[in-house]
Amino acid sequence: MQHMCVTGATSGIGRGIAQQAAAAKMGLTITGLEAEADIAPLIAALTEAGAAFVHYYQVDLSDGDVARQMVSAAADKAGQLDILVNNAGIQHVAPVESFPVAQWDKVIAVNLSAAFHTTAIAVPLMRQAGFGRIINIASVHGLVASVQKAAYVAAKHGIIGLTKTVALEIAEANMTCNAICPGWVRTPLVEAQIEAKAQASGLTVEEQAKQLVTEKQPKPDFATPEQIGDMVLYLASDAAKMVNGASFTIDGGWSAQ
User: Fold this and answer.
1) CB–CB of 177/134 below 8 Å?
2) Does the global pTM surpass 0.90?
3) What does CATH list as the number for 3-183+223-249?
4) What is the DSSP letter of 148?
5) Does the annotation count 152 as an active-site position?
6) Ranges of H-type helices in the chain
7) Over the stretch 67-84, which tens digit does the pLDDT of each residue have?
8) Which of 56, 57, 152, 234 is catalytic?
């Protein structure tokens, strides 16, 4: 039985990853900002889906010390840490000249620095155990840019660099570090964005969704959180033992243009 820790797993991509890991009968540690009582239905659903166990930590990963303590506690409680999925992320949109400094700091802290802190604790634990998989959920914005997303794009480019560096440092062990770069994924956060745009434009929600996705992607479909989860399971498997330092796009051809 393997133990996977997924940050930011109470909704969206992180939740999809946790669901696929539960179906694979893994033990799970998940993190989020909600009180544990509020995500009790999710814990029950993951358990029913087959998770060997589900441990939850309510943590603000913008605090590096808290991020490090969470990984140590999760490994101690489960007795091991096989797979770390750095997924937690936030967004703020504004032109660079008026981008709030506090929002810049928060986006960099959650989207980039948190992955550094969790990885720094996970690597020695995995090296000691003789096995480890670190999987960073980057973004197509780790490869290309969009306007008014300076902090997010900078952080996701940083995640790609962190992934490559860690991959080189752990290459001699039975460990790997890789990144996944999703394009448009229809998460609750994106759904809210679609609904707001539809209300402003007068389009239906589905018309607005198609317009939004085709602005960037040749393929007019959203990826699903479960598809991201399936890629995580592949990268965690023996089949991906020689995959190290790679970045995988799930972006409908966005970055191929």
Assistant:
1) yes
2) yes
3) 3.40.50.720
4) T
5) yes
6) 12-23, 40-49, 64-78, 101-108, 114-129, 150-169, 188-201, 205-214, 225-236
7) 999 999 999 999 999 999
8) 152
